């Protein structure tokens, strides 16, 4: 795909490395928020796979939560599901600098793959209700479609209930 920004090209390359030949779509409108993305794409908000980065306690390890667009992540549920990966530490929402330094992407365009380093990943089980989901592709106006099983396979994520009730 010629003319992609470097951040989107990194996502395309990471997907290709995983055997995923997906169509990355760029829009003139923002897809930065789940509501924006759903309106721009024309899909349910719940089918948007938000990549949210959290920071574990003392060790400051990054944790990626991929959450359905209609949900907010419950930090306690997330910490429990990721406990083996983050030494049982609590988690908190990461700031923009932490997100960029650990993923290589700015908030609003963080993809589920292609990060600066390896990220323990937890996937919201509510995403499995959709035949097709949409994820950020490295920029606040770029997305790609995938199947929930591809998300699990490509990220190695743990699936569970991380929705805040």
Please summarize what this structure is:
The protein is α/β, with parallel strands linked by helices and about 160 residues long. It has a single domain, classed as YbaK protein (Alpha-Beta Complex).
Characteristic key phrases:
alpha/beta, 5 helices, 8-stranded mixed beta sheet, YbaK protein, 165 residues, 8 strands, globular
Element layout with pairings:
Blueprint: H1 6-17, E1 24-26, H2 34-41, E2 48-56, E3 62-68, H3 75-81, E4 91-93, H4 96-103, E5 121-124, E6 133-136, E7 142-146, H5 148-155, E8 158-160
SSE series: HEHEEHEHEEEHE
The CATH architecture designation is Alpha-Beta Complex
Mean pLDDT: 94
Relative helix content: 25-40%
* Envelope shape: globular
What would you call the structural class? Answer: alpha/beta
Number of helices: 5
Q: State the distance separating the first and last CA atoms.
A: 41 Å
Low-confidence stretches: none
CATH topology: YbaK protein
CATH homologous superfamily caption: YbaK/aminoacyl-tRNA synthetase-associated domain
What is the rounded Rg?
A: 15 Å
**Main sheet characteristics:** 8 strands, mixed
**Tally of distinct domains:** 1
Strand content: 15-25%
In total, the number of strands is 8
Name of the CATH first level: Alpha Beta
